[in-house]
Amino acid sequence: MNPEIVISVVLTKSIQKGGNYATVKGVSNILKKIKDEFDDIEGIYFKRIPGGFYSDNVEEFVGHLLLWDFAKQDSPIILTEEGEELLRENVAIAKKTDPQRYSMIENYLTRI
Amino acid sequence: MGNIIDELGLSLLKEKTEECNALRNRHVSSSRDGVIETINLLSSCWRTGKPMITPLVTSNGYEDPVFKYIYLPAELRNIFHTPLVQRMNYINQLSFAYFAYPMANHSRLAHSLGTSNLIRKALRRMFAQGKVYTKNGIVDYFFDDETQKRVICTAQLVALLHDIGHGPFGHALDKYVCFSLFEEKKIKKGYKHLDKYYTPKYVRDCLKHLIGEIKYYGDNCLVPDNVIEILEMDKSSLDGLNNLIGQLIDSALDVDRIDYILRDSYTSGLTQGLINVEALLHNMVIFKDDDGIYNLAYNVNAMPHIEHLLYARDIMFLYCYEHGLKVCGDRLIEKALINFVQEYDLIDHFEDILLLTDQQLVTLILSYATEGMDCFKIIKNLIRGLEFEELLTIRYRKTQENNKEINGEIPEKTIEKERKEAPARKNDRIKEFAKKTTYGDLREAYYDLPETWERDIAAKASIERWKIHIVLASHETIETKEESAYIVVPNGKGFDYKQIREVPNLMSNRNEVSSIRSARNRVRVFIYSGCTKEEKENAKEFAFKYLTEER
Question: Could you give the domains of chain B?
């Protein structure tokens, strides 16, 4: 699974939950927990910041969404219709390409 | 009779063809061996952990046009004189920017020394303050002499080494290597700059033993694994003061960026980049979190200077790092290398090629490429002085201007206004590229797509393929970049550690910064200047239609 696909899966859930979850920091922290507890997510790297972790990969992904009109704002992250469609496509790719890893992430996300 | 002659002729022809093929194969094979031998010879000079010379230099530093004098402690001199570090002398910091700014031809080594100087100054000042910021207020805090010396020595070394992983021409080969070769060779994912992968690798493979010999205090030596850990891309396991060093060298507003913006501005003459370094360094503070981890933060007084830095960085991208001549040069060397690697089947030797310096790579291709190869024509062109011109620029803008060809003009509108007025952008090839980047299909987005587009445009305009080059928006063009810098904001009892974007009303020129980033979001087509006027017009018309048509 590409890092962008994993980020999309987590971002989709984070936006549903809203608030602090739907920020670069919020998404980074969830990904870090997934990486530590369940799954070695390939290609996503973290830095320590007070109170958690920050990933430049997430920042870049959200920055791309903003730049290309897939998102309207970044904190909290709000997507455009096109952005929602894009994330749906990425989630579908995740389900299809690596169903086992996808369900592991999905299970974890339902518990947060 | 005629038939016999024909048959004899055919059999002779066949025989000669086979001979020719055998000769050609032998020639190609011996050339390939020669190429590999040369690559090994050249790269092996750098891949050694021994100091190049016994340093005869007795001074404790180096004169520098930017900082006047850079102090390099004696402990680091052996490392400084290793081939891997000295190799940076032969890698231009700004690759082909000298086509636009002839003075901008300083080396990676100059930048690394500058960064090393800044990190030392920053840490000395932070230690001299004797204060640490916490969420409960400012606490007097003194680090003992041994700790200070260890941290400063480690930090200077990290700064000196942070760029040794660069390949020839710096970032010019990032996309080819990270998105194509790394994928093919199943090397780690998620790297967008090849140096991020190779810097810790080179240190681990070649310099570890020398680092272990560096004495910072009494008989105490540096721990090589600490240095490697700080240079790794994943910094989540850094603790204590190592985290502070990690943030000083690689974070939103680190000393690496401060040095390159200032140094590149100085040498290019783009004075918009001349930021107030002293003010930034004076306002750096240590923030200690609840887990006892030390973090880099800026005092809120630094805001005007941080804003200037953010603005300067984007201006430097717009006018220097992404100047048409520079990016065209970068694309040319990338294509020359791709072609050369394909022609000689060098895919298994790409890591040795990445150890070459700028001039070594050019000479290698020029020496072994034959006249019929695209890489030969491209390299010859690069040496002659880049006979290419910008044919077309299509900016991805969030307005109706999106679909107009804009050559050199940036409509003066703020992003906020554009967003309100923006019609949905149609699904053209540029949008296809944008989607591929967000799917994570980076190989397709940055490698396959431009190749296909160039081929199609060249074919339609009936010109040779090497005469058309497409440069896509950089993968670094994102809207949020570097606004994640942290500042300490008083909260009544103590301090909060906040990202700039979380501090309301402080980024007075955020719209300007966003506008510049938006202006950088463009696709550019370059054409060989020697093409006829008619060829250029045909290519321009077709390229615009091709790239912006509804799909």
Answer: 61-322+483-505 (1.10.3210.10), 324-478+514-548 (no CATH)
**B61 - beta bridge partners?**
B71
**Cβ contact A32–B236 (<8 Å):** yes
Task: Let me know: does A41 contact A111? Beta carbons within 8 Å.
Answer: no
Contact between A28 and A46 (Cβ < 8 Å): yes
pLDDT for the residue numbered B418: 42
Rounded to the nearest integer, the mean pLDDT of chain B is 87
Task: Give yes or no for a cis peptide into B490 (omega within 30° of 0).
Answer: no
At B402, is the pLDDT very low, low, confident or very high (cuts 50, 70, 90)?
A: very low
Tell me the per-residue pLDDT of B413-460, one tens digit each, with 9 for 90 and over: 334 444 444 444 568 899 899 999 988 899 999 999 999 999 999 999
A61 Cβ under 8 Å from any chain B Cβ: yes
How far apart are the CA of A29 and the nearest CA of chain B, in angstroms? 11
More confident residue, B225 or B507: B225
The percent of residues in chain B predicted with pLDDT above 90, rounded, is 68
**How many other C-beta atoms are found inside a 10 Å radius of the C-beta of residue B448?**
14
B11 vs B218 pLDDT, higher one:
B218
DSSP 8-state class, residue B422: P
* DSSP code per residue over A43-94: T---EEETTEEE-HHHHHHHHHHHHTTSEEEETTEEE-HHHHHHHHHHHHHH
Distance (Å, whole) CA B118 – CA B113 = 9
Give the tokens for residue B538.
Answer: 């045909």
Report helix angle B240-249 to B224-231, nearest 10.
50
CB–CB of B479 and A67 under 8 A? yes
Are the beta carbons of A50 and B295 separated by less than 8 Å? yes
pLDDT, average across residues B31-52: 88
Contact call for A45 and B234, based on CB within 8 A: yes
Instruction: Please provide the DSSP assignment of B284-325 as one string.
Output: EEEEE-TTS-EEEEEEGGGHHHHHHHHHHHHHHIIIIIT-HH
pLDDT at residue B400 tops 70: no
| Alpha carbon B125 to its chain's center | 30
Q: What is the pTM of this model?
A: 0.90
A78 touches chain B (CB under 8 A): no
Q: Is the pLDDT at B483 greater than 70, yes or no?
A: no
A38 close to B (CB below 8 A) = no
- The number of angstroms, rounded, from the C-alpha of B167 to the middle of its chain's C-alpha atoms is 9
The Cα–Cα gap between B187 and B236 comes to 21
3-state secondary structure at position B126: helix
Q: Check CB contact of A110 with chain B, cutoff 8 Å.
A: no
Global ipTM: 0.93
| Interface contact A3-B398, CB threshold 8 A | no
Instruction: Report residue B127 as tokens.
Output: 């230690």
Model confidence at B362, pLDDT cuts 50, 70, 90, reads very high
- Smallest CA-to-CA distance from B337 within B177, B456, B472, B182 is with B177
